[in-house]
Design a protein that fits this description.
393 residues; alpha/beta; Rossmann fold; 15 helices; globular
């Protein structure tokens, strides 16, 4: 079974979507052959991955990222040549539009996976609730062509059902983690010395985009509260984005690593002491699982999907969204009680390694099989071969 995974995220990016797509390729069973297709300035390929050359333009409100206009005819021809049986839509941008159009044109089943709350992101980045609402309607339309849609958390499913999405088409596919890449064994004392952190001055990590939708405005007030209560610390900001300059001002003693590879991120995480993730909009928050796998207690908000990827009071704390004081109080509990922090570190690691990718990906592969079986049975009960992209384009 050959499945084309269409995405607007090229593998040069390090984010939750690309982490997940790499895991799909790495852990695919013998009867599933996934192949990721995307668009970039220059064409390039590797095992399980093809980037087609296309014209890119900066994304509004996020100039650091580019959006590419897919060449529908070229992509369609490639999918026919590759004998694709089904299409997996992962992002609602131009690649998502291509997935919807080509699946209809070729008569192939379309599976969707929902990764990002673009309606909320649009509203926060643009400052316009109307634009956010329009984006939500667009998301509902583009995913409406899917026979099945997998979401990363129960809370995301509930939100979509409340917004009018067809509940019968929505399933939950929780994310996983690479417990070898993200492990306490990768802790680097050399890195900690370069940051000037220690048991007396712990490293508090944030990892992800430095962008308003991540709730990072909270960190300025949190730093002030920690300073007011005489709690030595240093923020480690792993990632890049449009808020970097403002955060440099708000967190003058923080270490900014810039964008990191997956491998470098594993070492950085293991070398920190706590993980703070104030986002209210993330559907899953892969980094929350990765931080726990690296042995870090995690602090997340009571909104969005990340709280489903930890165990409150066992591997970290769920804090009130937007409350610097609640985050400060929970951090203080861990900073003043090394034994509690050590217990949480052990519990975080133990929990995370139960969430390996091999097991986490089974709902996706089962969905591929079931959707293709339904499509085959529905098109012709006598046909034993799965549908494939037609030879004419």
């Amino acid at each position: 079974m050959k499945v084309a995974i269409l995405t607007d995220n090229d593998f040069g990016k390090v984010n939750g979507v690309t982490t997940t797509l790499r895991a799909i390729i790495r852990h695919a069973p013998d009867d599933v052959e996934p192949h990721v297709y995307t668009f970039a300035d220059d064409a390039h390929e590797s095992d399980g991955y093809t980037a087609l050359a296309s014209l890119g333009v900066p994304i509004p409100f996020y100039a650091e990222m580019r959006m590419y206009a897919p060449r529908f005819a070229a992509l369609k021809q490639r999918l026919v040549a590759d004998n694709i049986c089904a299409i997996h839509l992962t992002t609602p941008g131009p690649a998502g539009m291509a997935a919807r159009h080509i699946s209809r044109s070729l008569g192939l089943p379309l599976i969707g996976s929902y990764h990002t709350e673009l309606g909320q992101y649009t509203a926060r980045l643009s400052g316009s609730g109307r634009l956010g609402a329009l984006m939500q309607e667009y998301m509902r339309w583009i995913y409406g062509g899917c026979q099945r849609i997998l979401v990363p958390s129960d809370v995301t499913r509930q939100q979509l059902v409340a917004a009018g999405w067809n509940a019968d088409r929505l399933g939950v596919w929780a994310r996983g983690v690479d417990g070898d890449r993200f492990s306490p064994a990768r802790r680097s004392e050399t890195l900690r010395k370069s940051w000037q952190v220690s048991d007396r001055r712990p490293a508090i990590l944030y990892a992800g985009r430095l962008s308003p939708e991540k709730g990072l405005g909270l960190l300025h007030g949190l730093r002030q509260l920690l300073d007011d209560h005489h709690m030595p610390h240093r923020f480690i900001m792993a990632g890049d984005g449009p808020m970097r300059r403002d955060l440099h001002t708000a967190l003058p003693e923080a270490v900014f690593t810039g964008a990191l590879t997956h491998d470098a991120m594993g070492e950085v995480m293991a070398s920190c002491d706590l993980f703070v993730f104030p986002s209210e909009t993330d559907t899953a928050g892969n980094v929350v699982l990765e931080a726990q796998a690296a042995g870090l207690p995690v602090l997340v908000t009571d909104r969005g999907g990340p709280r489903e990827n930890m165990r409150d009071r066992l591997t970290g704390y769920v804090c009130h969204a937007g409350s610097e004081r609640d985050f400060c109080w929970r951090i203080a509990e861990l900073l003043v009680d090394p034994e509690r922090r050590a217990r949480m570190r052990e519990s975080a690691r133990a929990y995370a390694i139960t969430r390996g990718w091999a097991g986490s990906l089974q709902p996706l592969f089962d969905c591929y099989r079931a959707t293709l079986h339904t499509a085959t049975a529905g098109s012709d009960a006598t046909v034993s071969e799965p549908p494939r992209a037609a030879a004419h384009v």
